[in-house]
Amino acid sequence: MSDHSARARRRGEELIRAIHDAVLEEVVEVGAGRLTMDGIARRAATPRTTLYRRWSDPIEVLLDALYHQHPVEEPTPGADDLRGDLIRALRLMVEWALSPAGRAVATILTDPKSVALMSEALFERVFANRGGTFTRTVLQHYADRGRFPVELLTPVVADIGEALVTKRLIDTGTAPSDEDLSAIVDQAILPAIGLGPGGPGAARA
Amino acid sequence: MSDHSARARRRGEELIRAIHDAVLEEVVEVGAGRLTMDGIARRAATPRTTLYRRWSDPIEVLLDALYHQHPVEEPTPGADDLRGDLIRALRLMVEWALSPAGRAVATILTDPKSVALMSEALFERVFANRGGTFTRTVLQHYADRGRFPVELLTPVVADIGEALVTKRLIDTGTAPSDEDLSAIVDQAILPAIGLGPGGPGAARA
DNA sequence: GGATTTAGATACATGAATGTAGCTAATCGC
DNA sequence: GCGATTAGCTACATTCATGTATCTAAATCC
């Protein structure tokens, strides 16, 4: 009877990854507010004692999991296709937002206890370049190449795409289709940088 | 010894209002996920039994409280001042979002258990015209009067202002200043309806 | 003023999560 | 191989929320 334990004993990195996965699944199911050490431990199939050896409460586990997430893919502006690159950037954002990590971030941001537990530094590390830099990268690229006036690339303008996608996600709870993303680009972002659907100045005609 | 109880006994409307107030305070402090009958009862200084007589769980209490909130003030377009009316509409929205009810809605929307408990109808009643119709009312008014082409007032365009204000609230956690609201109107909304800062077609020059 | 309704004050059994402790045994480093 | 580390297991006292039940007494209706 050498194998009364079904699975080889996990340790170090492997175990921690399992716990990180567990907490991300758990938070999507019950919300950041109802996270418990017990629930995480059960889902990760590990004793609670293992959790207490490393973290002091469920939110710590969650933040740690997010901290160790692989960074999201960055939008990489390629050919001379501003419109297409913007749509692709927003698609990347949607993808991230629907991932376990993205959903976890959403619940954290409206949970008072979680927010209180986050240091500035952690906030920076976890959220920077995720909810806010998808279209900015693309816009900066084309502004630098003179496709539109740099002074139009204000903080507000850089946020338009992300803001509208976020609102849609909250309102409908479902992923925006490619047509939705195109509409956002054509009707909100491009006009803001002086490039209406029919080209510069088209709105006048 | 007729007053061994410090306060006159509350009943009916008065008691219910106290409970509604309590649950709204409670949810802002602990989040929708950590709401408990116990916590609400303590804050309202009433026995738990009183709560169970009317509601079956904490989320029900919260939804009921929101359901009975007085509706928000509606933006009322007045003089011929599209820009000013848009800014005022967004200011109304910020005001609402920072109120107890607004904060409660924010936590509810990212709490899986709460969302699951909301029927379509209740959702409609509680959230309609709150997160989404501040600038739309104004824009519709001026579109009808021919100040800009009606076909430019798409669902996406009607969402721009609310989306950007929401994003700011989430990102910074603080209320946008009037300059911030002006920037949103000038740099995002007006361009989208063909009215750039310098008037129609200005982006071309 | 008497009957009805309903808040307020217990009390209690149950279940869940907490945080700690002690032991066993698998895995790793040398 | 041997010692150090660290999962895994079990137990336990504590705290908190739950849901129900019972009784008292204040407010209201007629």
Shape of chain A: elongated
Domain unit count of chain A: 2
- Note the quaternary state here: homodimer
Count interface residues per chain for the largest interface. A-B, 48 and 47 residues
Query: What percent strand of chain A?
Result: under 5%
Largest sheet of chain A: none
Mean pLDDT of chain A: 85
Which structural class do you get from the secondary structure elements of chain A? Answer: mainly alpha
Number of helical segments of chain A?
A: 11
Strand tally of chain A, please?
Answer: 0
Runs of chain A in which pLDDT lies below 50 for 5 or more consecutive residues are 1-5, 201-205
Helical content class of chain A: 55-70%
Radius of gyration of chain A: 21 Å
Order of helices and strands of chain A: HHHHHHHHHHH
Tell me the distance between the termini of chain A.
84 Å
Summarize the structure.
Two copies of one chain form a homodimer. With 205 residues, chain A is mainly alpha-helical. Chain A contains eleven helices and no strands.
